[in-house]
Every structure is written in structure tokens, then in C-alpha cells.
Amino acid sequence: GENVEQHPSTLSVQEGDSAVIKCTYSDSASNYFPWYKQELGKRPQLIIDIRSNVGEKKDQRIAVTLNKTAKHFSLHITETQPEDSAVYFCAASKGRGSTLGRLYFGRGTQLTVWP
Amino acid sequence: GAVVSQHPSWVICKSGTSVKIECRSLDFQATTMFWYRQFPKQSLMLMATSNEGSKATYEQGVEKDKFLINHASLTLSTLTVTSAHPEDSSFYICSESSGPDTQYFGPGTRLTVL
Question: Which residues in chain A are closer than 8 Å to B1, comparing Cβ atoms?
Fold first, then answer.
């Protein structure tokens, strides 16, 4: 099966600084890589995703990069704000359809943004 | 994105009783739903994949006779925790696939077994 590693487990930054979270995956057949933000006691919310035919994707202050050769992908948050504080999970999957659509999650990164 | 609801949002039960959690897809006919469990400060652990009209596929180590999953319609999947024990206390979340890959999560159910 797929193995997703995520680093760091905790990350503290000053408001306005950038934050980077990195993930690696083991199965070269994985082709879909979403990132979720989860606030305490709430559901994971999809914030950005990338598919294997794309190397980079950006949405305002959030960007994700993918290196298929090295099997790693990263989340970049610029101009961080206190409301960005949450746990972030990366995930990988082989695409939709029965168990093929299952997500393999990283262990999560607790991001704290200090005002 | 897709809208997924769960009921109840939290439940407290006595040890030995059974608890049913519902997951509804409000705007999408989901042939596949996923059930996850999340312990405090840990990642989401997939318990089973729920397929409409057929038996669920359970992950290794998850007891299918303890965690009963029913997916009788395209909009409803249920998870029943039978003979619950304190170690079953956790945050249970369902998700559904919308589009080619994207999964959206329900709000979760906090189960506390006394």
C-alpha cells in the first residue's frame, strides 16, 4: 500500500512569515494529492489539491508543488495569519473508484501562527 | 464542493450498548463513502469503504462484526458501533467522493463510551 510521510509535526511562525509543510509518498501510481486543514473539533476542509499532470498550483496565499520523480509534494502558505493556525494533513490517492479512491493521510502538522 | 452531513454530532453511551451514526450526501449521489476514525492529536485512520448496494470493504485490523456499515442508498451510509467500549471513544468522520478524485468530509461524530 501507500505510505505518506509528513514533516514537520509542529511548526510555529510569526504572522506574515511563510510556512512550508512537506510530504513524501511511496507508490508511484498515486496521482492525486489533496491538502486538508482541520481546526480543533471540526471536519477536515480541503484547501488545495494537485494532480500528477501538474507541477504547481496556486490559490491566493496557498500553493502546492509536486515532484513526481522524487515522490514529494509541499504546501506553501505565504503571509501567514493567526487564523491559519490549525492542523494540516497531506494525502495521496490513486484516483476515484471503489477502494482506489481511498486517501492515505500523513500524520499531520500543527501550524501555529503567532501575532 | 459536496455537502455531507452526519448525525448525531456527538453521543455519549454506556459500555455494551450500540450506537448508529448516519452519513448523508445532501447534493450528490455517492456510490462510495469512506468511514474514518480519528483519535485526539492523531491522523485520520480509514476504517472501511462503503459501497452502495454491496458489502463494505474493511481495513486490516478493523472488526467488521463490531463496526457494521450499511449503504442501502446513494445518499445514506450508516456506521453502527456494536457493544461499544471506552476504547471505541473517538471522532468518527465519513467522506464521499465528488468529481474524479476529491473527497469531502462530514462534520464528524464525537463518540464517548462510559
Answer: 46
- In whole angstroms, how far apart are CA A106 and each of B50, B54, B83? 22, 29, 31
* Phi-psi domain of B86 (left: phi exceeds 0; alpha: psi -120 through 50; beta: other): alpha
pLDDT tens, position by position, B5-56: 999 999 999 999 999 999 998 877 777 889 999 999 999 999 998 887 888 9
Contact (CB<8Å) B46/A93: no
Q: Do B100 and A96 touch (CB under 8 A)?
A: yes
From the number of C-beta atoms within 10 Å of its C-beta (0-12, 13-18, 19+), residue A115 rates as exposed
List residues bridging with A21 in a β-sheet: A75
Tens digit of each residue's pLDDT (9 = 90 or more) over A101-114? 789 999 999 999 99
Number of Cβ within a 10 Å radius of residue B80: 15
**CA-nearest residue of chain B to A46?**
B104
Instruction: Give yes or no for a contact between A108 and A5, defined as CB atoms under 8 angstroms apart.
Output: no
The pLDDT tens digits for A43-82 are: 999 999 999 888 999 999 999 999 999 999 999 999 999 9
In this structure, what C-alpha cell is assigned to residue B45? 485512520
Residue B108: which of B48, B13, B28, B34 has the closest Cα? B34
- Is A107–B42 a contact, with Cβ atoms under 8 angstroms apart? yes
